[in-house]
Structure formats: C-alpha cells, structure tokens
Amino acid sequence: MVVWVRGKESTSCYLEALGPPQVVEHGDGTGTVTFGRGVGFLVGLFQDNDDAQIELSGIEDARRVRDLIATAQRPPR
C-alpha cells in the first residue's frame, strides 16, 4: 500500500491499482518515483487532473525503490 499526502489530506492506494513505477534519479542517487496510469476510483480522482500525479519525492536509492515496487506489483506465481 502507498500513502501520499496533498496539503492536509492523505490518501492510500494498493500497489496493484497503480500504474508501473518510473524513476527520475539525481546524481546523488536520490530521486522521485512516479506511477503511470492506474485503475480504480481513488487513482482516477488524482489523475483526472492533468497536473496531478502520484509521486514519492526525495527518495534515497530511488532506482532500488522503483524496482522493489515493480516486484511487489507483480501477481504471485
């Protein structure tokens, strides 16, 4: 589950409902993890607005976090 905050409001969403994670990485390894289009009502609330995008910013070792999220999103075998 991912929880993100917008101002004084917070929302949570299961990883399976989010689109694939993408990373923008800085030279020091920190970065921002964003998500492509997902499914479901909560994600739609945030992604109907072109300016709105679910993101985790200021993440240390952002590429590793992206990889962990992508692995967690895969269905169990």
Label this structure with key terms:
2 helices; 77 residues; 5 strands; flat; three-stranded antiparallel beta sheet; two-stranded antiparallel sheet; 32% strand; alpha+beta
The average pLDDT score comes to 79
CA-based shape: flat
Strand order of the largest sheet: 3-4-5
Total number of strands: 5
Radius of gyration: 13 Å
- Helical run tally: 2
User: Any low-confidence stretches, pLDDT <50, length ≥5?
Assistant: 39-51
Give the H and E element order: EEEEHEH
Structural commentary:
25% of the residues lie in helices and 32% in strands. The protein is an alpha+beta fold. It has a 3-stranded antiparallel beta sheet, covered by helices on one side. A two-stranded antiparallel sheet has the order 1-2. It is flat and about 35 Å long. The model is unreliable at 39-51 (pLDDT under 50).
In short:
The chain is α+β, with helices and mostly antiparallel strands and 77 residues long. The chain is built from 2 helices and 5 strands.
Topology (elements, then pairings):
Blueprint: E1 2-6, E2 9-13, E3 21-25, E4 31-35, H1 41-47, E5 55-59, H2 62-73
Antiparallel strand pairs: 1-2, 3-4, 4-5
